[in-house]
Structure formats: structure tokens, C-alpha cells
Specification:
The structure is a homotetramer of 195-residue chains.
Chain A lengths: L3 H19 L6 H8 L6 H4 L3 H25 L4 H18 L1 H14 L6 H23 L9 H13 L13 H14 L6
Chain D binds a DNA duplex (21 and 21 nucleotides) through α3.
DNA sequence: TATGAATGAGGGTTCATTCAT
DNA sequence: TATGAATGAACCCTCATTCAT
């Protein structure tokens, strides 16, 4: 007798893969069922709807993400160390939840306005606050440059990290920590040779 | 008296807005027609299919993009100047074809394998070649750092620039050239204060 | 200044060809217009509707057919001579109105019940009456065999003649009269060698 | 408990009736569904498309037809007996597959050029070969008249038989064998009284 | 738990037809 | 006379969802 939560997680994993690869709208319930070796109707024993699968995938991912982020933020490190830790944590999440991250990247903009996905907008707000305050602290502490538009910088760092989910494949030649190190090196010191 | 190519362009502009905002799959032909103030069937007087609209939008954008890129590449500037020119040109294209760029970002991965959209894959190959060779020239000329994985650097620069289309709004407070300047400053010199 | 009836006849000829080749339902107004070197809408200057074109084609054909038939029937020949004359006249009409005959064969069953095409049903009734009475006269006069079901014979002769329109091409190696002669020979004397 | 192939056959039977009565193009999927007591969309659980229903109807018919024909042809009877057997078999098939035969008669010409319906053209070729060789054998054996154009004779016999599907109603007063007997009598010996 | 069959809403597309120019 | 553009109804088909078994 298979425990229900076990099966749910399996099925959600399958669904996430397909959503990530084909896009949420282009993914039919039947495709998910095919990948899971069952018929489309059977999924409705486990889930209320296609949308509820999407919700659970994103919620699970964001919960874990914020676990990691909160740990970092609660440590009250210096701005540069905080930035390094957040970026590293982000790449770890990409490693662990590649599919969910890819879905999030592609769909969150359309989803966020919907009541059901209000948690996405909420997460975005917290995210922005955490990053902006870190950057501001860094500028104040003269760790980060003061001559840049801080919102532009925020977007730059944010996008820079998360878009990686679109090409990242777990188990490749670079570990998430290694990728994080190189990204940080580029973001912090630039790609130009210092004069 | 609206000449035919004129009307096509108008309608394609409308379609591109809707595609960009709602996603290609989620956009119904009826929505496009609504935005254009006509009935769904009427669009088929001007276009063969929804997909052909998408194709024309992307093709037009890529043609103009490569006009700009080729001008830069043919100038045979030094690697750093080439990089700066390419990035600046990219932001100009984002400014001119915001909707098309956003569509391209979101859909090209699913589209490229299809025969009809082979030009996307082809463009991606040329794009990668242009950037990689510029970066390699820069490393050889000691303009760019030699200690970074060059493919990682390529992805970093590429994504960093184009994702901007997802938040950029033409007519905002920063001109494309101004944004390019700040992005280049971050990419080349980093956001950390020099020691 | 092209006389209107002239142009009508031209256009109806074109339409008949296309109807015959592709079937009435499968023929779009645009296809007809293409064949005529004009745009679909322009046909509506000449005709009220696609259906009115069909009607005029069939009416014209049947009018001419009955001209010929009535001439034969009014001559009050013997039954065998009447049959020969009717068959010959039929092949002449096939020669002259190949397209119309083909359309008639394929569509009349669906059309006849419609009020607009009541003339088809009426023609069929007259047709049947003419043939049945000829056959009956022939049986009475011991010109035709008495051991056959007369309605079956009627259908046999009728179909035998008109289906030829599906393969007949005007200008081929056999004249309509020659084909009529051979058909009559088969119908009257059979294909078996006489003992 | 309706097994799936059972249901398919039922639905195909319904579809065939409607196709035969209204013509393939004029038949909407809704009409078929109405006749079957379900909604249009539900048909797509059983079949890929309207066209695939048509294909299966025609294929099933032709397969059975050739079963019968091949049995006749393999028996290597004399030419006259072969002709009699083929005609009788044809009327039996008309009796069993009236709708399919009617569809075949009306649509095969438009369908045959399509790749999907290549089996129609193939069947026509085999059909023609079987009939022509039978007729030629008959002429050589002095069973059939030598003074007739053999292709004309072929068309005459072929059409004569199959058009019957357009008026034949199973369960009428004549059995298929009886109709075959009378048709054969007309075709072989003619309708005229022997001198 | 899963299947098989169906629902019903909607989506892309076609096409006869209209009408101002 | 003919064009160009649009209408609106209908069509084939897809798909999330339901439900008896």
C-alpha cells in the first residue's frame, strides 16, 4: 500500500519536468499522465486540477528556497558575504529544483496576479527587499560601487543568477558551488582585466 | 487608404504585444482580433495562421538585429569595443522590438526544433559564434580575464543582456544607451568597489 | 463593353468545371474566382450566391436535355427506335454538358428535396415516365424481353448511360454517337456470344 | 459491457450511414455524434479525425471485398463463370456494405490522389486488371463478343454494377443474388428479344 | 487506485457573403 | 465591373475535467 504523499511527490516531480520542458500551457494533463504511466483521468485521484499541481510545485520550491534564504539573512553577515551566500544558496536551489525554477522563471509573471498565486507576488516582494537592502548596506559600507543605479543593479544580479536555470543541468561538470563562485567573481569584479 | 503592408505591420505589432504579455499559447486569436478591433476570422485575410504571425514577428526582429550586429562585426573593432558595441546594439533592439524580444526569450526554446522556426536555431548558432570569438579574442589580447570558463562567461553576458526585455519599458527614465552603459560597467568592472 | 449574358455564361462554364472536378461542397467560391481570374467577392456582382450558380448550371443543362428528349418523344417512333434515339441524345448531352452532367450525377440526390431545386425532382419524374413507358411499350410489342423486372431494367439503362459522364472526356477517340452505338449494342444484345 | 472494437464498429456504422446519405464534406462531426447519441468531441476518444473514420470505413469495406474477389479469382473458373461470380459477389458486398459502397462511389475520385487514400487507387488498379483479364479471356474463348471495345465494355460492366448501391436498399424485395441474376442476364444477353 | 468513456467549453480556421470604394 | 477588407456562422478538433465501475 503506497503511502499517498510519496506518490504525490513522484507525480509532482514528473509534472514539473514536463511543465519545465514544454511550458505550462503547452503541457496537457495527458502528457503528464503518459510520463507517469497512467491515464489522464487517473491524475484526478491525486490532484484537484492541473493548476493545483502547478501551485504545489511552486509552493514547495519557494518554501525550501526561503528556508535557505532566511538562514542566510538571519546570520546577519556583512553585505558582501550576504550577497555571496545568497547567490550560492540560489545556485543550490537551482540544482535541487531545476524544473520548478524553470517553471517559475517562465510563468510567474502571468501567474502572480491571480489570487491563487498571490504567494508568488509576496515572495517577489520579500526577495526584492532582501536584495535591495543588502545592496544598500553594501553601498553604505563602501563594499559596492555607489555610482550605479541600485534598482538596475538589483535586476542585474537577480536575472544573472536565475536565468541560469534555463541552461543548467544537474550532474554536469560544474557543481552549483563552482558555478556560484564564477558568477560571483564576474558580478563582483567584472570580466575585464584590471588595469 | 491603408496600404496592405502597412496594415500587416500594424496587426503584427498588436499581435506581438499580446503574445509578449500573455504568452503565445495563452494568446487566442480572438484576443488579438479584439485588440485590433476586428473579428477573429478577419485576421485570416491578412495572415495564414496564428503561427505565421509569430514567425513573421520573430523573423522581422532577427533580420533587423543581424543588420545591427553585422555592422558592428564588420567594423573589426578590438574585442572590448566589439563587446561594448554589441551590448549597446542589443539594448537598442530591445528598445525597438521589446515585444518581439520578450516573445523570443520565452518561446524560442520550444520553437527552434520545429522546421518552420529553423531560422531561430541558425540565429542562435551565429550569435554564439560571434560572442565566443569576441570573448576569445579578448582573452588572447589580455582585455578579458583568462581565469573564467569562457562558455559560462558567454551565457552570463548573453542572458544578462536579453532578460532585460522582461522588465524594460520603452520611454522610461533610462535610454537604451544609458542602460547599456551601466550594464557594461557592471559586466566589465563588477559591482564591488576596487580595493 | 462586355455584354452581361456573355460573361455570365463564361463564368458559369468555369464554375461548372470546378464543381464537376471537386464536388459542389468542396468547391469554394474563391476557387471559382481564381479560375476566372478575379476575386471571390467580384463573383457576387454577377450572381446572387454560390447556390444560384449551381442552379443556373443545372437548369440550363436540363432545359437543353429536354429539348432533345421532347423532340425524340414527339416523333412517336417505335419503342426500340425511341430507346436508341434517347440513348444517343443522352450521349450527345454528355458531350455538350459534361461538367453539368457530372454535377447532376453527384449532387442531385441531395439537392432534389430542396424547394429551390424542385425542378430536379420534376425532371426525374418526367424522365422516369418517359423511360418506363418506352420499356413497357417495347415489352408489349415484343421488342424487349418480358422476363425482366421492368424497374430494374429502367435503372439499368438509366445508370448505364449517365455514369459515363464520370469518365467521358469530349474530344476523345470515340464520338458520342459511336459510344452510343456500342452502349446500345451491349444493352440490347448483351456482351455474350450468341449460341 | 461494450468492448472497444465493438463500439468502434458501431460508431463507424453510424458514420457511414451519414456519410452515405449526406456526402462526406456535407457531413459534420456533430451530425455523426448526434446520430450516435453523444457530443461531437466525444468521437475523438475513439477516432483521430473525421478523415480517419472515412479511411477506416473504406478500408474495411475494400478488405472484405477483396477477400471475396480473391476467392473467386483463385478458383480459376472459365471467363463467363468468373464474370458471373464477380458480379454476384459485388452485389453481396453492396448488400453488406451499402453505405461504404455509396461513399466509395461518390468520393473515391477526389480521395484517391491523397497519400492517405492510396489504397483506393491501388484497389482500382487491381480491380481493373481482374476485370480486363476476365473479359479478354472471354473474348479469346469466344464466350464474349469480339466486336466491342474492351475498355468500354469494362466500364459498362463496372459502373452498371456499382451504381446500384445508390438505389439499393437491403431487405427489399429482391435478394442480392436475385438482382445479380437479372443484371447478369441483361449484361450477357441484352434486353432485346432475340430474333 | 486506476480505467474507460464521456462532457462541454473553447480554440484555430474556413468560407459564403457584404459593402464601401 | 472589380477590389480589398471585413463579417459571422459554422466547422474540426483539443483538452481539462467528471464519474461509474
Amino acid at each position: 500500500m503506497t503511502a499517498s504523499p510519496e506518490r504525490r511527490r513522484e507525480l509532482l516531480g514528473t509534472a514539473a519536468e514536463v511543465f519545465a520542458e514544454q511550458g505550462y500551457n503547452a503541457t496537457t494533463v495527458r502528457k503528464i499522465a503518459d510520463h507517469a504511466g497512467m491515464l489522464a483521468g487517473s491524475l484526478y485521484y491525486h490532484f484537484d486540477s492541473k493548476e493545483s499541481m502547478l501551485e504545489e510545485i511552486l509552493r514547495t520550491f519557494l518554501d525550501e528556497l526561503w528556508d535557505g534564504y532566511d538562514t542566510v539573512l538571519d546570520a546577519e553577515l556583512g553585505p558582501r558575504e550576504t550577497l555571496e551566500a545568497l547567490v550560492t544558496e540560489s545556485f543550490r536551489e537551482i540544482d535541487r529544483h531545476r524544473a520548478a525554477v524553470a517553471i517559475y522563471q517562465k510563468e510567474s509573471k502571468q501567474l502572480a496576479p491571480q489570487e491563487r498565486f498571490a504567494f508568488l507576488a509576496e515572495s517577489q516582494r520579500r526577495f526584492e527587499k532582501a536584495w535591495l537592502s543588502t545592496l544598500e548596506r553594501g553601498v553604505a559600507a563602501e563594499a559596492f560601487r555607489a555610482d550605479l543605479d541600485i534598482r538596475l543593479t538589483y535586476r542585474f544580479v537577480r536575472d544573472t543568477v536565475w536565468v541560469a536555470a534555463s541552461w543548467y543541468r544537474p550532474g554536469g561538470q560544474h557543481s552549483p558551488e563552482e558555478i556560484a563562485r564564477q558568477y560571483l567573481s564576474m558580478v563582483l569584479d567584472g570580466i575585464a582585466v584590471r588595469p
